[in-house]
């Protein structure tokens, strides 16, 4: 499992080491220099440009530049602010030179040492002007300049690195702002760190959490999922969420919905138990271990409200998605009054229906809503975030833009619902489901584009891949 720690946690871990004289900067800058050297076809004669700010981040770049210059690289430092003087003297004695932004043209590698993990808000104009001229292969030092290390927020110009070399531990922003980070390489430092503030599942973690049927299992012991979705107008959401639940391993799926949606589900998935029910009629579908509530349900008919209220009154885990989120935003007491586990799965616009925008701090926004309503929240996006009212947050690193297609969220809801019905906790079901959804999207796209139906069909392939990787 990937783990990430906040800037405050990093500072606290560094303090006793620095007091004891441990040469952290030397270790970090050497690791940075080696990482840069590995990206060069040759070091001797290579053209390397350093973008240098005033803090330790710029000093790390200068120390690494000195290491490369001693090995024959032509290293030029472009100053955006007054640098750390001892690092500058070492750099110059090693043969490094000072230059202007024109040196960026034709560089084999540019090292971004403008702003480190302490940076907040938009870059200063001098730094932003340099970022606008970046071209070619870029290596960021610790965190790309312009990216908030704790939140991944980007305000204005920010470096888009091909490689980020980070020191000691991962920072949350590196797992959130993945488009700016590029490849990620960790230089170990002898930190003693507390529990991580953010984690990300890897294939082995997913394989370990996936339910495996016992020999004596039957369809009921494997988990029965109820799906309240679809309407006379929106039938596809019902078909996709039911299909995803089946593909994700639910022992049985009980569907309750409007007649036309029920007809479509019955035709697409004969293994589902289908009831032409809506409103309070959802209680008649039979016992379930969890519910998926909301995809394509509609928000205009009173029966939709009755359905949402009825499902939320049941003492089992409920995943609330799509139209059910809109109705719950109008009646948040339905969520606050629940004692059984509840998972909300909004995208940014659905989140805003609860009264405020997501903003730059996605983890903080998801946590705020979770605490206000006493629920877990899966905030969908390129880096999907899963949080509860307290405890560590998780971020998914398998998402991509190929999943920005109609119906993909319905597939995610059905897949997570199946995992809930099979006994996974809210945090585990949501984060495992997000991981597999992301991989299914990538596998089904195969370098091109995909559709929700193809993502659904690729879900078992994503499971096999995770287990094989384990």
What does this structure look like?
The structure is a single chain. This protein has 470 residues and is an alpha/beta fold. It folds into 2 domains: 197 residues, YjeF N-terminal domain (Rossmann fold, 3-Layer(aba) Sandwich); 267 residues, UDP-N-acetylmuramoyl-L-alanine:D-glutamate ligase (3-Layer(aba) Sandwich). It has 18 helices and 18 strands. The strands form 2 sheets. It has an 11-stranded mixed beta sheet with strand order 1-9-18-17-16-15-14-13-10-11-12, with helices on both faces. Strands 4-3-2-5-6-7-8 form a 7-stranded parallel beta sheet, with helices on one face. Helix 5 links the parallel strand 5 and strand 6. The radius of gyration is 25 Å and the shape is elongated. The two termini are 12 Å apart. The model has no long low-confidence stretch (mean pLDDT 95).
Mean pLDDT: 95
> What's the architecture of the largest domain, going by CATH?
3-Layer(aba) Sandwich
Contiguous runs where pLDDT drops below 50 for at least 5 residues = none
- Shape field: elongated
Cross-sheet strand order for the largest sheet: 1-9-18-17-16-15-14-13-10-11-12
According to CATH, the fold-level topology of the largest domain is UDP-N-acetylmuramoyl-L-alanine:D-glutamate ligase
How many strand elements? 18
Helix content class: 40-55%
Task: Please work out how many helical segments DSSP would assign.
Answer: 18
| Straight-line N-to-C gap | 12 Å
Q: Count structural domains.
A: 2
Structural class: alpha/beta
